[in-house]
């Protein structure tokens, strides 16, 4: 992994132009970004929203544009099996999730983002909106303890409502199509659900996005406790609770937001001109 191969400011600006319509439609709001440490290593740990298409990208541009933070994201190896996408994603900081890559990022004091729920959390089933699917995954906690990396929990709300689940991955796997996918060795957590956005199209509904950063969690107290399972579980639980609390706060904020819909935001802008 060559950390020197970053996009130039011009390339980031060009890419941001492509994302501008998304920012306009979703009008993201961020809370408590001032809590982010000014120096790394920092590990952002948060919830993956449905399909995982927009949450990381919007947050990436926000951190880059507002705080001059270049964020590396740990991605599933499946990302790197897709031509063109692997090149584009890699250029903008996505690296394959591995112990070696994570170690290098932390030793180089970088800002790194990880979704412990991975594909399973992105490809949710019905009734699982904003539920964490971390299962027994503790890798992020172990790496943070080993390298004394500060963890910044974050929560995201909004993307779950961009799509309606028509046929979730569990239903697909229970169908004849699922039988065929299993025969071809498809990973269960990589079965993409069938969704609809605007009308019957795959275009996402213009929902407002909300992000919240939690209090940084120091791993200093866990120094030398890498093999202590209780310490690892305690750190994981602390991070998880912060993410879940952030989700609940954002859901409440959204419920009370007079401009949460695109129509209300346009109307508000017109009235205040």
TrEMBL record:
One Pfam family recorded for the sequence: Acyltransferase
Ranges where the Phospholipid/glycerol acyltransferase domain occurs: 42-159
Keyword Kinase on entry: no
EC number: 2.3.1.51
GO CC list: membrane
Keyword entries, A-Z: Acyltransferase, Transferase
SUPFAM superfamilies for the chain: Glycerol-3-phosphate (1)-acyltransferase (SSF69593)
Protein name: 1-acyl-sn-glycerol-3-phosphate acyltransferase (EC)
A Gene Ontology molecular function term of the record: 1-acylglycerol-3-phosphate O-acyltransferase activity
InterPro entries in alphabetical order: Plipid/glycerol_acylTrfase
């Amino acid at each position: 992994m060559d950390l020197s191969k970053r996009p130039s400011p011009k390339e980031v600006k060009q890419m941001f132009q492509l994302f501008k319509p998304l920012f306009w439609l979703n009008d993201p709001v961020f809370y408590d970004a001032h809590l982010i440490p000014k120096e790394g290593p920092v590990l952002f740990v948060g919830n993956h929203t449905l399909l995982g298409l927009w949450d990381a990208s919007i947050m990436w541009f926000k951190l880059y544009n507002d705080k001059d933070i270049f964020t590396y994201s740990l991605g599933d190896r499946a990302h790197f099996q897709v031509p063109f996408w692997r090149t584009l994603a890699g250029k903008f900081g996505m690296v394959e999730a591995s112990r070696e890559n994570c170690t290098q990022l932390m030793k180089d004091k970088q800002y790194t983002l990880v979704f412990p729920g991975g594909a399973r959390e992105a490809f949710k089933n019905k009734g699982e909106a904003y539920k964490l699917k971390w299962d027994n995954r503790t890798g992020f906690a172990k790496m943070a303890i080993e390298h004394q990396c500060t963890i910044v929990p974050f929560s995201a709300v909004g993307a779950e409502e961009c799509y309606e689940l028509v046929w979730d991955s569990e239903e697909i796997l229970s169908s004849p199509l699922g039988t065929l996918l299993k025969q071809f060795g498809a990973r269960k957590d990589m079965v993409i659900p069938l969704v609809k956005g605007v009308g019957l199209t795959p275009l996402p509904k213009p929902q407002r996005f909300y992000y919240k950063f939690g209090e940084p969690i120091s791993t200093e107290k866990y120094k030398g406790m890498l093999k202590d399972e209780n310490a690892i579980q305690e750190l994981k639980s602390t991070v998880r609770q912060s993410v879940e609390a952030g989700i609940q706060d954002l859901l409440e904020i959204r419920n009370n937001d007079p401009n949460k819909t695109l129509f209300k935001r346009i109307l508000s802008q017109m009235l205040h001109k």
